Amino acid sequence: MRKELLLPLNMVYLLILVGFAFSFFTISFDVAALGVPPKVGSLLVYVGLISSFAASVILIIDVFSNNVNGKYLWTLAILFSGGLIGFFYLRGRDYYLKGSD
User: Fold this and answer.
1) CA separation (Å) from 41 to 15, 32, 48, 53, 59?
2) How far is CA 24 from CA 9, 17, 98, in A?
3) Range from 25-39, 65-79, 84-98 carrying the lowest mean pLDDT
4) What are the CA-CA distances from residue 83 to residues 30, 49, 56, 79, 98 (Å)?
5) By C-alpha distance, which of 22, 62, 60 is closest to 44?
6) What is the DSSP string of 35-68?
7) CA geometry: angle at 25 spanning 85 and 89, to 5°?
8) Angle at 48 between CA 47 and CA 52, to 5 degrees
């Protein structure tokens, strides 16, 4: 029996994108050199981390509620990547759900 995600699919994609973009941007570039105040730079980091955490939790709940094969491997991959591997899980979600109970 296939269960739906906690949020719509496009919202989960948005959470993954925001988490990756804000985390990558604030790590790669010095936002203070771009004229951004340090408080806003730290706010971007927090928004990126919170959205990545939310996407990871939603995807882990989906993996366990649908009893996907290799759920522990998916959980480790999603935890260590911060939701980036979750993007690949979402793209092939229908395929992985066919093999589950």
Assistant:
1) 19, 7, 11, 19, 27
2) 23, 10, 34
3) 25-39
4) 24, 10, 5, 7, 22
5) 22
6) T--HHHHHHHHHHHHHHHHHHHHHHHHHHHHTT-
7) 10
8) 115
Residue type, position 50, single letter? I
- Residue with tokens 């709940």, as numbered in its chain: 61
Supply 33's token pair.
């050199």
Rounded to two decimals, the pTM is 0.85
Q: How do residues 17-43 score in pLDDT, each as one tens digit?
A: 999 888 888 777 777 787 878 888 888
